[in-house]
Amino acid sequence: MSNMKEQALLRVVEEKTPLRVVNEDLEIGKVKCVDLASEYGTPLFVFDEETIRENCKRLRSSFSNYTGEVKICYAFKANSNLSILRIIKEEGCGADVASYGEIYAALKAGYDVKDIVFNGNAKKDNEIRYAIENGIYLIVDSLDEFKKIEKISKEKGITKIAFRINPEINLISTWSTSTTESKFGISLSKSPEIFELAKKSHHVEPIGIHFHIGSQITDPKIYCDVLDKIINKMREIKSLGIDIEILDIGGGFPIPYLLFSYIDTKNAQRKKELSASYDMKKFGNNLANFIKQKLEQESLQIPTLIVEPGRYIVGNSSILLVSVQTVKDRNGVKYVAVDAGCNILQDCWTYNWFFECVAISKTGAYDKKCHIVGPLCDSGDILGKNRKLPDVKRGDILAFLQVGAYQLEQQSNFNLFPKSAAVLVNAGQHYWIRERETPDDMLSHDIIPPHLKK
Ligand SMILES: Cc1ncc(COP(=O)(O)O)c(C=O)c1O
């Protein structure tokens, strides 16, 4: 590690990710990354158990000044690997689920039904039935869905529900889910009407209000502005004789993404959104204080507070190890082709996401400009454009950082490339948590009808 700049860069990596520099090697969970790559092969997601546990604890303590009960319902969509779910459950969290499969996973991972909330804007009858039969609380996205739930509840008894409210704030961010154009929820202005209707039902009991602004919301003021409007509506709803027992403020808590090789100077707003640094303790404290004061001001009872973090719990806990397959120069551009593509880091495709990358098996200054590309037959298969890396060669190992949220989950078999396997590391130990797919695994659901078998 002779180069000063490289040392400074790796200090930032140590601060924001579980990677540690030990005797010139990069380690995660006290295991050398190069050893993991050679033992398990690449591409390989590596999750650090300790980091996930610390994130859960930090988040819990951030809301400790709230006077009512606080439930952390982890958003399964961020990563529903069973081992990860077990760790998060052991840390005392509940579950935010959005499909039959996620309810099934929550039950299988041992989550208490009292701590599960069922979200989603297009729940099917069998999903609603499954939730109701298991005593799971539902978050209702529309009047139409309410009618469907009411009908199914008639057969089953009384179902407790919340309504998802869309506060319709027009954030510029790509990850906002609560703009006027977003598909989610019921307009804030219509919410008293729908609560009044639900109150008349003999089969459904409205006890909660829910919103989810979006992801990577770096400014607590955005939550406070929405909460101000929501709590005003809670007062109106109370005047209809309905006490809100559960206030669910969704997820969206951000992580400070590393962007030391980000050179898209035209997109400064995006850079700001991705990398904003903040103190979670203050962030949570601010929100809890704001809610308490506003409830007092409106003379409302203190409801149970639910938060639904996904990215915050798992985002920084994982790296993706990849190996360099080929390196070429064409028209003065260096292409570093690795064995993972946008089928594995899907967000590079869908959101043009920026995942920072470091060289694991190579030291040296980060001064060689290149495009890092995947193996897919698609020219959009670019994991990093105009990055700076050391002078990497075929066979070198690289790591993409902060890939723990939404990536393992969204992988595809495009081009019949297997999805990446995953391991968990903890204090020098390492374990498979998702096996590597074989070609037979990938084809296992394909069926050849008899006339094509000849
Ligand atoms: C309803 C709901 N809750 C929670 C989350 C988790 O968001 P994040 O991972 O940004 O915390 C999402 C993400 O899409 C969501 O749709």
Under the CATH scheme, the architecture of the largest domain is: Alpha-Beta Barrel
How many beta-strand segments? 21
* Strand content bin: 15-25%
Helix content: 25-40%
Shape: globular
Cofactors and ligands: pyridoxal-5'-phosphate
Largest sheet properties: 9 strands, mixed
How many DSSP H or I helices?
Answer: 15
* Overall average residue pLDDT: 93
CATH topology of the largest domain: TIM Barrel
Under the CATH scheme, which class of the largest domain?
Alpha Beta
What's the end-to-end separation, in Å? 62 Å
Total domain modules: 2
- CATH H-level homologous superfamily name of the largest domain: Alanine racemase
Radius of gyration: 24 Å
Unreliable spans: none
Structural class by secondary-structure content: alpha/beta
What does this structure look like?
By secondary structure, the protein is of the alpha/beta class. It folds into 2 domains: 4-48 and 317-440, Beta Barrel (Lyase, Ornithine Decarboxylase, Chain A, domain 1); 119-309, Alpha-Beta Barrel (TIM Barrel). It contains 15 helices and 21 strands. The protein has helices at 4-16, 33-40, 49-62, 82-90, 100-108, 125-133, 143-156, 191-199, 220-238, 268-275, 280-297, 311-314, 347-350, 407-410, 439-443, and strands at residues 19-22, 25-28, 31-32, 44-48, 70-75, 94-97, 116-118, 137-140, 159-166, 186-187, 204-210, 246-248, 304-307, 318-330, 333-338, 357-359, 368-373, 382-389, 397-400, 421-426, 429-434. Helix 9 (220-238) runs parallel beside helix 11. The longest helix is centred in the middle third of the chain and has 19 residues, at 220-238. Bound molecules: pyridoxal-5'-phosphate (PLP). Pyridoxal-5'-phosphate binds next to helix 12.
